[in-house]
TrEMBL record:
Keywords: Aminotransferase, Pyridoxal phosphate, Transferase. This is Putrescine aminotransferase. PANTHER family: AMINOTRANSFERASE, AMINOTRANSFERASE CLASS-III. The keyword Magnesium does not apply. Belongs to the class-III pyridoxal-phosphate-dependent aminotransferase family. GO terms for molecular function: pyridoxal phosphate binding; transaminase activity. It comes from Jhaorihella thermophila. It holds the Pfam family Aminotran_3.
Amino acid sequence: MTVITNHMPTAELQALDAAHHMHPFTANAELAAKGARVITGAKGVYLTDSEGERILDGMAGLWCVNIGYGRDELAEVAVRQMRELPYYNTFFQTTHVPAIALSAKLAELAPGDLNHVFYASGGSEANDTNIRLVRTYWAEKGKPSKKIIISRKNAYHGSTVGSASLGGMAGMHAQGGLPIPGIHHIDQPNWWAEGGDMTPEEFGLERARQLEQAILDLGEDNVAAFIAEPVQGAGGVIVAPDSYWPEIQRICDKYEILLIADEVICGFGRTGNWFGSQTMNIRPDIMTIAKGLSSGYQPIGGSIVRDEVAEVIGRTEFNHGYTYSAHPVAAAVALKNLEIIEEEDLIGHVQKVAAPYLKQKWEALTDHPLVGEARIVGMMASIALTPDKEARAPFATEPGTVGYICRERCFANNLIMRHVGDRMIIAPPLVISPEEVDVLIDRARIALDETLDELK
Ligand code: PLP
């Protein structure tokens, strides 16, 4: 058998990859024709590829490598835990120290009385858990008709059948017969694209009040929960106008609708606080967590629920769980990751150093002819590309065409920046230094210039 290593020629690795590996969210035939870039290592905010190029990772992987790459401490914890107890479950009246310690830590970090954690291997599984959690909660409270979950168009909550149904991505719903019944989508608070002549504040209220209207239309007795990301990530780093979240909170309180904050991206420092709910000043009943929980070093996610929700669920046997719920190696690595965030005061670094510096540089990109609005919360940011800033106009081309060109130009200039339609987005590791922010911005500007050239 051929031993496949980092030292093989890139073309051979690419050919083998194309022959046997199906990439997620990828047109695989198109990729096979040009060959995937082979990533061989990473340190800090930089990736290295098989040609020896250093790529600045403006997306922290998939918004997850919050503490940066190459942290030996996490590797050591993983090895130790694998030797001591590589696997055991917590299904049948057993538990283990990594699960106990991580849960206690999360209860300490999470706001209010969010004190109980149900684990999954990632965000999609955790959101699937949430569907069953909220329905079981209401059934136990004698209101079994409260089943519908309200979500938002262009939200991303994962890729399993349940979580993709919660999400509001038209392209995902178009494949595989989604959404499943019992999920209702209202419009997103994307002022730049959909605000028309309204001020952002008027628009924020209008979009929040769609929740109230949906509850009234569907019947208060049929609605279980509202789920939303504090800042929509994969939808294009859409930051709601200031008027939006207070109104959403008021409506959830008034109609006794559980509020699920999907913190998969926003959690663990990304928005400048431990959780995006704190940044947006909301009081969720359930928070979905993953990604930054382990900085991506191990696959782990979960749902953190309030005391009362846990108490109600605890009255019955909740027939739900995954083989890898509270996996000891993943839990031990996640705990160490949280300790690093605390010990190195990475939240303080984001608040005082990285985010203010990035904000100043990022917002200055609006001086570029292609850039309309620039939005940033903590260490997640977006720019809208447009042919006409005043009119907030879209390009005449198919949505995403210009964004794709820009992403390709970034990639060619050794910067990972993603596009969502014609919005460009970043979410770099939280440890990024001002000097590295300069490199990111320099490369982004070059890519924007090259995109503009290509459009001429
Ligand atoms: N929720 C949000 C807000 C996400 O951004 C993601 C992934 O990007 C998920 C859920 C799904 O998480 P996972 O890919 O770990 O299943």
